Known about the structure:
Elements: H1 7-21, H2 24-38, H3 55-60, H4 62-80, H5 85-102, H6 108-125, H7 127-150
Helix pairs in contact: 1-4, 1-7, 2-4, 2-6, 4-5, 5-7, 6-7
Amino acid sequence: SAMSLSEAEVQSARGAWEKIYVDAEDNGTTVLVRMFTEHPDTKSYFTHFKGMDSAEEMKQSDQVKGHGKKVFSAINDMVQHLDNSEAFLGIVTPLGKKHATQLKIDPKNFRIICDIILQLMEEKFGGDCKASFEKVTNEICTHLNNIYKEEGW
């Protein structure tokens, strides 16, 4: 299997993820707004968000909310398939290819977004929650980076 997580790790990662996924739209929005605020260059990929400078304005944006929700549901699909590497790769691969070839998103942004998710988990639910999800974010980023390499990045 391509996954380096034990069954116990998968279970605790799912438990951690569930806590933050309950409010997918709110938390997804928070994550994106943080990314755009702390790493303003990431806004350049999103034509709708370019002109937005204030975090308040971003929080109200339907596009930001919509994309936050999209990011969270993609991660949710991955989390549901952590114990099945074929299914997991079936989700990660097209996503990586699309971001590499069509959207041309720098792969370092996946790490940024994962780190912000971990930071939010720690703030809301403590260090144990963050620690149990850290391996999952590493797994996701590793696979995405591999897909990028295959696409010639």
